[in-house]
Amino acid sequence: MDTVALGGARSQCILAALLLDANRVVSMRRLVAAAWGEGPPQGARTQVQNRLSALRRVFREANLGADVIVRRGSGYLIEIREGQLDLHRFDNELVRADALAASGQVAEAAVAINDGLALWRGPALDGLATPHLQAAAERIEERRLAAVEKRIQIELDLGRHGELVPELTGLASAHPYREGLHGRLMLALYRAGRQAEALEAFRRARLLLSEQLGVEPGPDLQRLHEAVLRGDEALIRAARPAALTPQVNEGTAPVPRELPADITGFAGRAEALTALDGMLPDAANAAVPVVISAISGTAGVGKTALAVHWAHRVAHRFPDGQLYVNLRGYGADAPVPPIEALGALLRALGVRPDRVPADAGEAAAMYRSLLAGRSVLVLLDNARSAEQVRPLLPGGPGCLVLITSRDRIGGLVAREGARRLTLDVLSAGEARDLLRHVLGDGRARAEPDALADLAHVCAYLPLALRIAAANLTNRPHQSIATHVKELVWADGLGALAIDGDEETSVQIALDHSYRAVPTDAQGLFRMLGHVHGPDFTPEAAAALMGTTPAQTEKLLDRLAAAHLIEERSPHQFSFHDLLRQYARKRSSTEAERATGQRHQYTESTKGPGSDCGNSNESR
Fold first, then answer.
1. Closest CA to 247 of 369, 133, 165
2. Residues with Cβ < 8 Å from 540, sequence gap 6 or more?
């Protein structure tokens, strides 16, 4: 294979950053960080551009094509074809190995993993020392070691115990903190009839962990030690060590592809998509145990649509699969308990139903073990709280968790370092684009002003827009302008619903959010519906409640956390027109209910013969 002189270390760092995100735009900021770290010199952007020009010239002279590096917006992209990049070929071999194992061709799966590992010719990004690239190199090395462990486990299952002992001895010495390697070494020794050496291997591992880290071996390794100590024959009979790996369906462990169908007619959200792209594991954050992105926003604003659409765009970045759970945080049904969600996730990862632990803590530990060393995207939709989500978070690098919720779930930001993206209603142009897609270009072009009015009446809320467009589609001879008049003059919220589909309703969606906040916050929300003007302050809200601004601010914060109102700036709150309508309607409903209850109380206190007129007549 011919080699090409790429220039100095800076040029190599820039090329490495492009290759790590091949076929995706890499911002100038990240290229500068890859080349210089946190202290770039003045003129670094110009130097990056000059080095990219030099790399293009090198590629042209080597007949590799000068146009493989292209400018895209404010960044650059390197175009790589299938099979050109060793890292992609490695990932493809692992996917092939999973498919072979799933079809029962276990020995062939081990060969496929070895073929992938044979592509390694030394440490990843060797010699490129900036912090950003070092983090990426560590992540790639973790993927390599996970593949090694997977191949060793397969060969243990195939009975090649004695052959593996020398390799495992070297690996356990080179990576002393990976307890899985120590456990597999113990198992190989025990199955090879070397019980005393297996116990000695545990003693060395325990001593090392105690002296260098001050910790005892984990429960899996300790259970394996106990089984070896008592000469448990189950370790000989087992196809794989139960103490080290979860019991999965033999030969049928799937690569989950659970994402719901992508959203038809997805419109707008360019800034949100770019923000999510920036949260992907890359050279800047690859060493973080797990990247958590939380999309929050009011009911019907399109959180799930955005999450599913983006997840499909980046699914190829997660070759070990994509998991999806609807946590039902807001809806007619009760929220999904963590143990139920963990059961669904474990079964999707191939764990037999009878092997799913009944204890949430044990199930979470098994879940983290299965995802260790794998690159999986986990979409947790419609979450109610941080407590519901925490047990569902992977523990190691390489995974990304995408969460949608009507709540800010600030606890995940504080404790787990989640990156939050708050979604607002669509812009006027985006709303018209959505309506145009559902209604068709011809119908939209025929009534451009009415189309704009319809978007405005729907408050640019995606759920309202889709419902209104769907109802118009069911009435092909009705004009858009007529439908707008119906929404204006009729009960707008009541009309934004789909017949026969109770949950596809703006009012029902808002009901679920309203019921999730405390009663005192509900009372303030109803009062705010009568505030004139688009914005209000804590002082105005306090005047409505008859309390101090400090007391009222706590309730405003709770409403803002549930996205029933939005904090536009410090001490300035607002909500969109449909939420204001909903607040007023709730206020009227509660007033009518209170009047009815008073009337019922008055009637009940009269009792038989309590009518004053009748009493006078009887005298």
1. 369
2. 531
Longest dimension (CA), the chain: 120
Q: Residue 321: what residue type? A: G
DSSP-assigned letters across all residues of 394-439? --STT-EEEEEESS--HHHHHHH-PEEEE--PPPHHHHHHHHHHHH
Reported as type and span, the H/E element at residue 113 is helix 106-117
Q: Which among 142, 443, 157 has a CA at the least distance from the CA of 287?
A: 142
d(CA 110, CA 528): 64
Neighbours of 612 (CB within 10 A): 8
Per-residue confidence (pLDDT) for residue 308, from 0 to 100:
93
Tell me the C-alpha distance between 563 and 566, whole Å: 6
Strand 377-383 to strand 26-27: parallel, antiparallel, or no bridges (unpaired)?
A: unpaired
> How many CA atoms are closer than 13 Å to the CA of 122, on its beta-carbon side?
4
Angstrom distance (rounded) from CA 510 to CA 562: 11
Report the distance separating Cα 389 and Cα 478, nearest Å: 45
Residue 413: both structure tokens together: 């930001």
pLDDT of residue 343: 92
As a whole number of angstroms, the distance between CA 173 and CA 178 comes to: 10
For 225, the enclosing helix (H) or strand (E) is helix 219-229
User: Which region holds residue 214: left if phi is over 0, alpha if psi is between -120 and 50, else beta?
Assistant: left
Give me the amino acid identity at 478. Answer: Q
CA gap 148, 411 in Å, rounded = 36
Does this model's pTM top 0.85? no
The full DSSP string for 541-591 is HHHHHTS-HHHHHHHHHHHHHTTSSEEEETTEEE--HHHHHHHHHHHHHHH
Which pLDDT score is estimated for 81?
A: 79
Q: How many residues does the chain have?
A: 619
Q: Are 310 and 303 a contacting pair, CB within 8 Å? A: no
Q: What is the CA radius of gyration of the chain?
A: 31
Query: Which helix (H) or strand (E) element contains residue 497?
Result: strand 497-498
Give helix 44-61 / helix 9-20 axis angle, nearest 10°: 80
Give me the residues of the chain with pLDDT under 50, please: 1, 238-252, 283-288, 601, 605, 608-619
Instruction: Give residues with Cβ within 8 angstroms of 198, minimum separation 6.
Output: 185, 186, 187, 189, 190, 228
Cβ proximity of 390 and 361 under 8 Å: no
Q: Which residues contact 183 (CB under 8 A, 6 or more apart)?
A: 220, 221, 224, 241, 243, 244
Is residue 302 within 8 Å of residue 269, measured between CB atoms? yes
What's the pLDDT score for residue 619? 29
CB–CB of 152/114 below 8 Å?
Answer: no
Instruction: Give CA torsion, residues 40, 41, 45, 47, to 10 deg.
Output: -110
Query: Which parts of 417-548 fold into alpha helices (H)?
Result: 428-439, 441-446, 448-457, 462-473, 480-489, 492-495, 506-515, 519-528, 538-545
Q: Which residue has the tokens 């070895």?
A: 114
Can you give the pLDDT at residue 4?
67
Q: What is the DSSP letter of 315?
A: G
The one-letter code for the residue type at 533 is: G
